[in-house]
# Entry
Amino acid sequence: QRQLVESGGGSVQPGGSLRLSCKAQRMILSTFSGAGAAWYRQAPVKERELVASITSDRSTHYTDSVKGRFIISKDNGKRTVYLQMNSVDNGNTAVYYCPVTTYGGKGTQVTVTA
# Structure
């Protein structure tokens, strides 16, 4: 089953921080190490959008709205991708997904609320 597990979401106040994790436990290590990864989000009544991506050689890209606040990273030994979210705002409320190659998960909900 090509499944991974996103976690770390929850409720957070504006200006707060969260760290999301995405673990591909059943993926072959060499496949994970050689793959890029990305975090997407989907807010209610909006289309899914790319938040951040990282290549196999750790080059990163961020959508403009999160630059300087979010950090994507990848721990190959743990088969895990992270998204450090700092200084969150109401616009960050969404379900966050982290597909890696053909693996996908159910996402993790992030709710920014005072």
